[in-house]
């Protein structure tokens, strides 16, 4: 299991934080997520993601299900940045 950081912007931070869609989408793949928000109130949010297989994660993020989950949560896909441990 490897740990990654991810950042992106969303339409509505409160909606994104309350959504169960992340767990519904990532959980069956053994991926866990902790959420973070910008304390200055921007629409930028962050996650710590535990991913068992990053190649599988990359493929998963290219699926229609990923696009639907991001749309449901108001994620701006073009702002997504995933960082790996150095």
Count of separate DSSP helical elements: 4
**Structural class of the helix and strand makeup?**
alpha+beta
Report the β-strand fraction as a percent range. Answer: 35-45%
Total number of strands: 4
- For the largest sheet, list the strands in their spatial order: 2-3-1-4
Name the helix and strand elements from N-terminus to C-terminus, one letter apiece: EHHEEHHE
Morphology: globular
Quaternary assembly: single chain
Fold and architecture overview:
- The protein has 86 residues and is α+β, with helices and mostly antiparallel strands.
- It has one domain.
- The chain is built from four helices and four strands, in the order βααββααβ.
- Strands 2-3-1-4 form a four-stranded antiparallel sheet.
- The chain is globular, with a radius of gyration of 12 Å.
- The mean pLDDT is 97.
What's the short version?
With 86 residues, the protein is α+β, with helices and mostly antiparallel strands. Helices cover 34% and strands 38% of the residues.
Q: How would the blueprint of this fold be written?
A:
Layout (H helix, E strand, L loop, with lengths): L1 E9 L2 H6 L2 H6 L5 E6 L6 E8 L2 H7 L3 H10 L1 E10 L2
Antiparallel strand pairs: 1-3, 1-4, 2-3
List keywords for this structure.
4 helices; 4 strands; alpha+beta; 86 residues; four-stranded antiparallel beta sheet
